[in-house]
Amino acid sequence: MDKILVCGGKRLQGEVVVSGSKNSALPVLVSSLLTAEQCAYQGIPDLMDIRTTLKLLSSLGVRVEREQDSRGLGDLTIRADHVTKLEASYDLVKTMRASFLVLGPLLSRFGEARVSTPGGCAIGTRPVNLHLKGLTEMGANIDLVHGYVVAKATKLHGAKIYLDLPSVGATENLMMAATLVKGMTVIENAAKEPEVEELATVLNKMGAQIHGAGSDVVKIEGVDALHGVRHRVIPDRIEAGTFMVAAALTHGDIVVRGARADHLEAFLLKLKEAGVTISIEEGRVRVKGEGRVKGVDVTTLPYPGFPTDLQAQMMVLMAVADGVSVVTETIFENRFMHAQELIRMGADVRLEGNRAIIRGLESLSGAEIMATDLRASVSLVLAGLVAKGNTEISRIYHLDRGYEHIERKLSALGANIQRIKG
Ligand code: EPZ
After folding, report:
1. Among 41, 32, 83, which residue's Cα sits nearest to residue 62?
2. Are the beta carbons of 158 and 185 closer than 8 angstroms?
3. What is the pTM of this model?
4. Tens digits of per-residue pLDDT, 323-371?
5. 141 CA from centroid of ligand 1 (Å)
6. Residue 172 Cα, ligand 1 centroid: separation in angstroms?
């Protein structure tokens, strides 16, 4: 298995271009199942999770073509005009839980689906009860057989669905299902993430009638059919935030091109509170680390609150901040696994349930550490950037799931980082 070796102490500066959003691309690619016409997508990042999604769609009989252009991967075209299978197998769903998003579209367009339940993952049990509750309220017959959701829907109908939690995945699954269901479906306490709003934008470009996406009440008026679409995905706000933390950590000066400040308001306010200089320009955000930041408290919340996907990265910044900070994780029940690895690097972090109490230190020391999940793995790379000496990170396949060529991007900013082929 590959490893990443980082030699800390370099100040990062320059410009980096944000890739397309993984968490927007995944549901958008799946939404192509809702039409027999061709869908063309631009700006889809070259990530393991994207390749898994394309493999899943191909396994259903969907035609997938990716153009190559001079700069590498070009447009992606998908056509679900000959779907031959209505099943998402365990081996695919277990590697990437977002595969579960095929349930709504398959059920809505074809009247049946057999999708493996995703099971838990490193950061939590990750149940799908809200997805299933909503589909049941729309008239689906749902059985759980040998770890698979077996769903049948002779006649789905509009429904008023209340989500006990503003689940991103459940909102996306139900929104997609409702586009082809006769009548009005209302999703209350819907997730408001930019990726949810973007999915609604794409679906409406395909002829759907969705109103209120991005707010906590989404209304979907079913239509008979959807047509093809051409769409460029939004930039990845989590990747953008990750590079902003890198600038703050290394007292650097980075222009993050493509970053959408309006997708990162809570996060940017926290960076400012910690003493980081942020300047928001047209289509980019410039971040300057003017010295050691102040310890600030962080609580992750559903959008527009502080994003859980940037919690691990923020913990690294707090580990070398001046003062004590408390990081509270309210979204997932086990999302502090990076803390043990940071402690190996000398960080002073004490875990108490869903709270981490961090006493900032002058520096961390390089060590051999292990990635455990996607966002934790990138936080370990960030820690390596500022640690004294070398840091060697194993199990970086987690990193490849969600960050496009991150060592190349960090090297271009001046980091001393390399991938060691395993
Ligand atoms: C999406 O996951 C993202 N993944 C996650 O990013 C992100 O952390 C999460 O939203 C929260 O913002 C993608 O978009 C592909 P949820 P999702 O359903 O949809 C509970 C990354 O690193 N819940 O909003 O799975 C659940 O257990 C990934 O890119 C139920 O209880 O998240 C969690 O505690 C990690 N029942 C909370 O809701 C359900 O039926 C939020 O989960 C569904 C969810």
Report:
1. 83
2. yes
3. 0.97
4. 999 999 999 999 999 999 999 999 999 999 999 999 999 999 999 999 9
5. 24
6. 11
